[in-house]
Amino acid sequence: MSDLNVIGVVGAGVMGRGLAQDLAQHGHKVHLIDIGKEILDDAMRSIRQNLRAQFLMGKKADGKSVDEILSAINPSTDLAVLEDADFVIENVTENFDIKKSIYLEIDKICRPDTVFAANTSAVSITRIGSQTERPDRVLGMHFMNPVPMKKTVEVIRGYHTSDDTIGTANKLLSQFGKESVVVSDSPGFVSNRVLMLTVNEAAFLVHDRVAPPSDIDKIFIECFGHKMGPLATADLIGLDTILYSIEVLYESFNDDKYRPCPLLKKMVDAGLHGRKNGKGFFEY
């Protein structure tokens, strides 16, 4: 098991920037990759703001300053910088064709021993691994948002994923304060196979005018002790991502219980994606 000093993070969206921040805070050198300089500039500004907020709340990072942590992150639009990466975590859009294009490239760029982890909530890890010459070194790592605050990761073993690869992933997770629950590759894995059904059914309750979103979430928070209701959780994840995940489950299992709620489809078509753009089931 090689040293895991240099980590590639492909995709500088909400999850990618959270990962880059968390890894850099724990002493890793990070290559943060995305297609545009504007996206990367925005990601670095966001990470700076998040670090300052943490420091104001008294959460220090082993005596490192904000600038020292940021200096460990190398933002780049060029996948070629991943040639020295010990481990790569991919966080691009939940679309297989887009992911496939990434893996075809990085498989040629990275060392043969470099592990690839797909941070996905729905796409098959076995299918991703089959796009590479190293399917035994490909696995899923489903991080939760916000990454720096969530200490447990759903790790997914593809058909070919080796025990050594699972061990390497667990070693990396331990290096930045996280633990894993290892599950087998199946549509939605554990978390989303249950969560997406819950969110979809909650959306049907709004659609059928059984109760408004605030009351639905109140029942889960005050009756069951959940920290957040299913509809606020959907807004946090992004309703477009929620809809895509439900559609994958519906197509994968051919089971009507995963039929997407018409209201959810309508909201996504209307551009109501949740927190990311200010309005979903709630306004932000």
The number of domains is 2
The major beta sheet can be summarized as:
8 strands, mixed
Given helix and strand content, the structural type is: alpha/beta
- The helix/strand series, from N terminus to C terminus, equals EHEHHEEHEHEEHEHHHHH
Q: Provide the β-strand percentage band.
A: 5-15%
Extract low-pLDDT stretches.
Answer: none
Q: Tell me the total number of β-strands.
A: 8
Q: What number is the mean pLDDT? A: 95
Write out the CATH superfamily name of the largest domain: NAD(P)-binding Rossmann-like Domain
From the N-terminal CA to the C-terminal CA, the straight-line distance is 45 Å
CATH architecture annotation of the largest domain: 3-Layer(aba) Sandwich
**CATH topology tier name of the largest domain:** Rossmann fold
Overall CATH class of the largest domain: Alpha Beta
Rg calculated over all Cα atoms: 19 Å
Into which percent range does the helicity of residues fall? 40-55%
Binding site for NAD(+): 11-16, 34, 94, 99, 121, 145, 276
Pfam families: 3HCDH, 3HCDH_N
InterPro entries: 3-OHacyl-CoA_DH, 3-OHacyl-CoA_DH_NAD-bd, 3HC_DH_C, 6-PGluconate_DH-like_C_sf, 6PGD_dom2, NAD(P)-bd_dom_sf
Domain 3-hydroxyacyl-CoA dehydrogenase NAD binding: 7-185
